Amino acid sequence: MIKLKVGMEVHAQLLTKSKLFCDCPVVYDAPPNTCICPICMGHPGTLPNLNKKAVELAIKAALALNCEIQPISIFARKNYFYPDLPKGYQITQYDKPLAINGYLDIRGKRIRIRRVHLEEESGKLIHMGNRTLVDFNRCGIPLIEIVTEPDIESPEEAQEYLIKLRQILRYIKVCGGDMEKGQLRCEPNLSVEVNGKTSPKFEIKNLNSIKAVARALEYEKNRIAHKLLRGERLYQTTLGWDDIKGVTFEMREKETSADYRYFPEPDIPPLVIDHEWVEEIKNSMEELPDAKLNRFINQYGLCEYDAKILIRTSEYANYFEALAKHVKNLKLLKEFMIGDLLALLDENKLNLSDLPFSQEEFAKLINYIHEGKITRNMGKIFLRRMVEEKKKLKELIKGEASLVVEDKELIEKLLKEILKEHPKEVEKYKSGKKGVFGYFMGELMRKTRGQCNPKIAKEILEKLLEE
Predict the structure, then answer these.
(1) Secondary element (H or E) of residue 456
(2) Contact 191, 150 (CB under 8 A)
(3) 412-423 as b/e, with b when 16 or more CB fall inside 10 Å?
(4) In this structure, is the dihedral angle defined by the CA atoms of residues 364, 367, 371 and 375, taken in order, positive or negative?
(5) DSSP secondary structure, 312-371, as one string
(6) 3-state secondary structure 52-114
(7) Which of 3-12, 265-274, 359-368, 408-417 has the lowest average pLDDT?
(8) What percent of the chain has pLDDT over 90?
(9) How many C-beta atoms lie closer than 10 Å to residue 217's C-beta?
(10) pTM, whole model, 2 decimals?
(11) Packed helices 423-430 and 408-421: angle between N→C axes, nearest 10 degrees
């Protein structure tokens, strides 16, 4: 039997306007080497000045992950040479981090979080043929590193942990979580046990998506297990991941803490965290996903599946709650937000803030469907045109209202034809099989191309079937 043990290291970029130790702006797509200064470039004689906002966001993240905030934490120098590290060391936290002893629950399983600490980002290497260019814009951007105990036991658990972690960080507006932009980076450390034999630890880098993490762990689990079974010698290694080929490759022997020669950063005094400040941050925090999920289920009578979709982001959940105050049919709103609206946002690559109509206009659309002023099918068409053509609901109603079949005599005539065409179904209904009612309504909608007032049709059909 193959046993996998994974500890996850996640680097999350904090949503600050400036860097961790200087005033240089944090801009994703700025021209190379335009967001730098003597401090983040490590020029002699410069001194770092800690960004208070970065500390606040780090505390927020640690609290959301159930960590203990340390009253005193220490910054340290992590020494190593790399072309995109101009100082020759990274300012981070080592033996006295900001927060310890947290946890994150996934599907009833607890993943322990060993530590959350602050550190600065390095630069970026750009490879062009046989040349390598260096962009120092990212140097000094504030990060938190979130380190778990080796509690993750499968690629699927790793994926679930990362999805939930990213959701929490986005909810509390600590990190954007966009892996393509380098805002979130995952580095799993894994070991494998087969028949009582345990491998050394391997670290996987260059993972640019959550799916890539699961794929890399699955590949590496099988590769290491195969080598253990064959009795091959294994040694602690840092690996890269080729997402196209779906294989790992050896980068270097994995360093130990001694290789980095950590020592306290002499230019930054100990970071003292006031208990009252922590309480202030805690009291101002947004509702977390798990709490919101339970509240949505209880308050709005939603099933867990629907509630999870509606709380996918804090913005989407807030949008639903704002609309819920103004619509007359909560079930209809839920169905439109889970189905039609979400699909339109994804298809057109839009955020809620990009929608060309107000919440009030969307609420009117839902209410018009509920009141029978327009059919559900027309509501779907209207919503699409409101999104893609930026049409006003008022214009659409005025231009298309004549298509709605509300003539009671016409509806009755059509229903009589349907009942005459389907005598067996009529008998089934009269024998107690009331589900056939929906069949007749479906036939009517087919005849009217979905543009019949369902409220009027239902009343007429009930009378006809009782005759």
Answers:
(1) helix 454-466
(2) yes
(3) bebbeebbeebe
(4) positive
(5) SSHHHHHHHHHHHTT-S-HHHHHHIIIIIIHHHHHHTT--GGG-SS-HHHHHHHHHHHHT
(6) HHHHHHHHHHHHHCCCEECCEECEEEEECCCCCCCCCEEEEECCCCCEEEEEEEECCEEEEEE
(7) 408-417
(8) 72
(9) 25
(10) 0.84
(11) 100
And the tokens for 14?
């904090």
| Angle in degrees, CA 137, 143, 145, rounded to 5 | 140
Burial classification of residue 124, based on how many CB atoms lie within 10 Å of its CB (0-12 exposed, 13-18 middle, 19 or more buried): middle
CATH 1.10.10.410 placement within the chain? 408-466
CA pair distance 24, 141, nearest whole angstrom: 9
Query: What's the sign of the alpha-carbon dihedral 330, 335, 338, 342?
Result: negative
Calpha distance 432→159 (Å, rounded)? 49
Q: How do residues 454-465 score in pLDDT, each as one tens digit?
A: 778 888 888 888
Query: Which residues share a beta bridge with 4?
Result: 192
For residues 95 and 238, give the distance between their C-alpha atoms in angstroms, rounded to a whole number.
Answer: 22
Long-range contacts of 360-364 (CB under 8 A, 24+ apart): 360/326, 361/386, 361/392, 361/393, 362/323, 363/323, 363/326, 363/327, 364/393
**Distances in whole angstroms, Cα of residue 391 to Cα of each of 323, 367, 385, 387, 413:** 20, 18, 6, 7, 35
Fold classified for 408-466: Arc Repressor Mutant, subunit A (1.10.10)
Q: For residue 349, what are the CA distances in angstroms to 341, 352, 398?
A: 12, 10, 29
What's the pLDDT at 320?
A: 96
Q: Which amino acid is at 397?
A: I
HEC string of 398-431 equals HHHHHHCECCHHHHHHHHHHHHHHCHHHHHHHHC
Calculate the CA 337 to chain-centre distance: 18
| Burial label, 14 (beta-carbon count in 10 A; 0-12, 13-18, 19+) | buried
> Quick check: 78 and 260 in contact, CB under 8 A?
yes
The one-character DSSP state at 30 is P
Q: Three-state SS for 5?
A: strand
pLDDT at 250 over 60: yes
pLDDT digits (tens, 9 = 90+) for 164-177: 999 999 999 999 99
